[in-house]
Amino acid sequence: MAQDVIVIGGGIVGVSTAIHLLRRGRSVLLVDKNTPGRETSFGNAGIIQREGVRPHAFPRDLATLMQVGLHLSTAARYDPFALPRVTPALMRYWWKSSPNHYSHVVRSYAPLIARSIDEHSDLIAASGAEDLVIKKGWYLAFRTAEKLKAEAAKAKKDHELYGINHRVVDGAEMAQIEPDFTERLAGAIHWTDPWTIRNPGALVAKYFELYKSMGGRFLGGEATGLEQDGDDWAITVADTRYTAREVVVTLGPWAPEVLEPLGYRLPLFVKRGYHMHYGTQGDAKLNNWLIDAEVGYCLAPMEQGVRLTTGAEFALRDAAPTPVQLGRAEGRARALFPLGERLDPQPWKGARPCTPDMMPIIGPAPKHRGLWVGIGHAHHGFTLGPATGHLLAQAMTGEKPAIDIAPFGMDRFAGTYPR
User: Fold this and answer.
1) How far apart are CA 408 and CA 39, in angstroms?
2) In a domain, 241, yes or no
3) What percent of the chain has pLDDT over 70?
4) Other beta carbons within 10 Å of 349
5) Which pLDDT score, from 0 to 100, does residue 419 have?
6) CA angle 407, 409, 414 (to 5 degrees)
7) Number of structural domains in the chain
8) Directed axis angle between helix 99-113 and helix 83-96, to 10°?
9) Low-confidence residues in the chain, pLDDT < 70
C-alpha cells in the first residue's frame, strides 16, 4: 500500500504536519499506536505560549541546584536511578544554558514561537474548534516582590526585543482577579498575547477530524522496521507493509525507537510531568490560567475540572510513576485555592521530549533522503505543533519555509551519531 508520505506519530506535531501536506496535494498515511492526541499532547497546561521566547534553561544558581539536588524543590526533581543514563545529556543541557549559549538559543527560537498563535488560529478556524479557545492570556504569579520585579524587567526587555505584550499586576489587583484565592500573592506578570485551551486533547482531536475530512488516512498500530526500499520508505504495521516516497517521524519521546536503528543516536532525554483534575469547594471558581512561579506548578480551569500540572521530573521515560511531585504541588495549591476532591482515578503521566540545546529538531535527516523529523519540543510541543507541521510541509514540497529552519536541523548533533 503506497502513498506519498507516511507520518509516524499522531500527536499535535504529526497531525499538523499531515494536514499541511494534504493541503499541498500529497497523499498521507498517519500512523500511531494510540488515538491521536492521547499522549504528550493530551496532558499539558493548554497554553499556546506566544510569550515563550525563552525556553526552560537548566538552573545555574547554587541555591536552585541545591534545592533540586536535595529533593526540596517542587518545580523539579530527579530519579537517582536514571542518572547514569541521563547525565551526559543533562551536562550538555547545563552547558547550553550558559549565558552566551542561551542568548543564541533565544535569538533562534524567537522567530519560531512567534508563529504559534497564527498557526493555531488557522487550524482552529479550519477545524471549527473556536469553542475550546480563550483569548485573555495567562498569569505568571509570584509570592515575593523581589522575584516579581526581576521577572518584570525580563518581560520589559522581551517586549522591546520581540514584541511580547504583558502587564504587571500587583497583589491587590491579583486578589480582585482571583477573589477565591486564600493566600495573598505579591503580584503577577499577565502575558496578554497567549491563548489558552479548555481541553488540549479535544483540540488535537478536532485537528485530527479535520485531517480525516480532507481525505487523510489513519492507521492504528505500532510502526516497526522503518527502512529504505529502493527510492521509497517502508514500515510494517500488524504484519502489513506500507511504503511511501517520504516519511516523517513525529514520535516525540518514542522517536529513538525508529531513528536509532538507522544510525541516529540523538542526545534526547525526557522531562516527565503529571496532571490531576479537581473539583472546587463550595462556589469557588478559578478564573484564569496561573503558574505559581516560585513553587512550580500550574492551575488551569479545564472542561474536566481544575487541572493541576507539575513541573519537570528527570526520569527514564517508561519508569513507574512517582507521586511525590504532584503531592507537593497539590499541598501548596490547596493553600492558595480551595481545591475539592480529585476527579481522576489516578494522575496522568506524560514525557516531554527534550534536546540539550532546548530547541526542537525540524527538517531532513542528514544521512537519508526522504526522511524528515519534527521532535524535541520539550515544554512547547503543544504551542509549536502547527508551526512545526507547516514548516516541515513547506520544506518537503519545495517551498521556502516561512522562517529559516537551519538552526533546528538534526545535523547540529552530527557528532553524536556515526557518519
Assistant:
1) 23
2) yes
3) 99
4) 19
5) 45
6) 115
7) 1
8) 90
9) 1, 416-419
Give the SS3 label for residue 50. Answer: coil
**CA-CA distances (angstroms) from residue 58 to 55, 351, 358, 396?**
10, 17, 9, 33
CA distance 212 to 206: 10
Q: Do 147 and 186 meet the contact criterion of CB atoms below 8 Å apart?
A: yes
31 contact partners, CB below 8 Å, separation of at least 6: 6, 7, 8, 9, 10, 218, 219, 221, 223, 235, 237, 242
- In the sheet that holds 47-48, the strands lie side by side as 47-48, 195-197, 133-134
**Terminal C-alpha separation, the chain:** 32
Tell me the residue range of the domain where 239 lies.
Answer: 3-43+202-267+356-416
3-state secondary structure of 2: strand
**For the whole model, what pTM was predicted?**
0.96
Task: Give me the amino acid identity at 419.
Answer: R
For 273, phi then psi, to 5°, come to -145, 160
The CATH number linked to 224 is: 3.50.50.60
Alpha carbon distance 226, 228 (integer Å): 7
**Grid coordinates representing 313?**
521530573
Q: Report CA-CA distances (Å) from 169 to 52, 181, 241, 364.
A: 19, 15, 57, 44
H/E stretch holding 32: strand 28-32
Q: Which three cell numbers stand for residue 52?
A: 515563550
Residue 218 lies in a domain: yes
In a domain, residue 144? The reply is no
CA distances from 16 to 41, 276, 386 (A): 12, 27, 5
Interacting residues of 202 by C-beta distance below 8 A, sequence separation 6+: 129, 132, 303
What digits encode the pLDDT tens for the residues 23-76? Answer: 999 999 999 999 998 888 898 999 999 999 999 999 888 888 888 888 878 999
**Helix, strand, coil proportions of the chain in percent (round to 5)?**
40, 25, 35
- Write the pLDDT tens digit of every residue in 208-232: 999 999 999 999 999 999 999 899 9
Polymer length of the chain: 419
Distance CA 165, CA 51 (A): 8
**Among 120, 121, 97, 109, which residue's Cα sits nearest to residue 164?**
109
**Structural domain includes residue 68:** no
